[in-house]
Amino acid sequence: MNFEQIIDAVRIGFNNPLSVQEKRKGIYQLFIPVFHEDGDAIDLFFTENNGKFILCDFGLTLQRLSYSYEIDTDNKNAILHKIITENGLTEEEGNIWLETTPASVFNDIMQISHAYAKIGSMRYFKREVIESLFFEMLDDYILSDLSAYNPQKKVYPIPSRDDLEVDYSFSPNGHPVYLFAVKDSSKARLATISCLEFQRANLNFRGWIVNEDFEKLSKKDRSRLTNACDKQFTSFEEFKSTANIFLQREKSV
C-alpha cells in the first residue's frame, strides 16, 4: 500500500475535486470540499505512523478552536473527548487522527472531517449541553470509584413520599449517607426540603450535597442548603478529591 493508492481512492470518492500538496517528506495535505461552519476549510493530512497510514490534523483543529474558546473545565474536556471517542478517533498531544486504508479512506475522511467540524463548533454549544455532563460524570465516578460503599441510585427513604427522591445512597456503616446532586436553584430547594423532611421523620442519616457550582446559587439557596445538610461539596472536582476520605470517616464512626 502506498500514498498514490490512497490518493487515487480519495479522488474517486470525491469525483476528482481534490488537491494534494506534499508539505514535508511523507506528509501530504488534502484540500477537500469540506468546511467548518464559518467557511474555513478543514485541516486534513495524510501521513504514516508505525507502518500504517493515518488521517490527522497535527493539532490544528484544537489550535483553531483555542482562538475563540477555551477547553477550561472538566465538562468541556469531557464533551471534547466524547466527540473524539464516538467517532473512533485518537487524540495524542492535540493531534486527532484515524487509521485508514484505500478501501475505507473516503468514509474515513467524511468521518474525521465531520468530527473536526463538530469540535470546531464547540463554542456554539448551548450552556445546557455543557452542563448536562455534570450528572453523567458524577454517575460514572460514583459507580466506579465509590463502589466499595454500596451506592444505590434513586432512593426513597420515606416510602410514602415519592416526591422526596435521593440521587445516591451509600452504606459505609449502620446509617445511610444520602447524596443530592445540585446544579441549579430548583434542585437546591428540593434537596433542602428533602433533608428537612427526613429529619422530621427522625431518620438516622447523613445528608450530603455535591454542587456543580456552589457560587452559582443564590445567597438564600446557599444558606438553606448549609443549614439543612451535614456536608457540602462546592463542585464535582472537590467531590472527586475528597469524597472517599469523608466516606472512610463515616465508615469508622
Structure description:
- The chain is α+β, with helices and mostly antiparallel strands and 253 residues long.
- It folds into 2 domains: 3-125, Yope Regulator, Chain: A; 134-252, Trna Endonuclease, Chain: A, domain 1.
- It is built from 8 helices and 11 strands.
- The protein has helices at residues 3-13, 60-66, 74-86, 105-120, 127-145, 185-200, 219-228, 236-252, and strands at 19-24, 27-31, 44-49, 52-56, 90-92, 95-99, 152-155, 166-170, 177-182, 206-211, 231-233.
- The chain has a 6-stranded antiparallel sheet, covered by helices on one side. The protein has a 5-stranded mixed sheet with strand order 7-8-9-10-11, with helices on both faces.
- Strand 8 (166-170) and strand 9 (177-182) form a beta hairpin.
- Helix 3 (74-86) packs across helix 5 (127-145) and helix 6 packs parallel to helix 7.
- It is elongated and about 75 Å long.
- The termini are far apart.
Would you count the extended β strands for me? 11
Alpha-beta content class: alpha+beta
Rounded to the nearest angstrom, the radius of gyration is 25 Å
The level 1 CATH classification of the largest domain is: Alpha Beta
Query: Which residues form runs of ≥5 with pLDDT under 50?
Result: none
Named CATH architecture of the largest domain: 2-Layer Sandwich
Average pLDDT for all residues = 88
The tally of helices reads 8
CATH topology name of the largest domain, in short, is: Yope Regulator, Chain: A
Specify the biggest β-sheet.
6 strands, antiparallel
Q: What count of structural domains?
A: 2
Helix percentage: 40-55%
Overall 3D form = elongated
- The helix/strand series, from N terminus to C terminus, equals HEEEEHHEEHHEEEHEHEH
Ends distance? 66 Å
Strand order of the largest sheet: 1-2-3-4-6-5
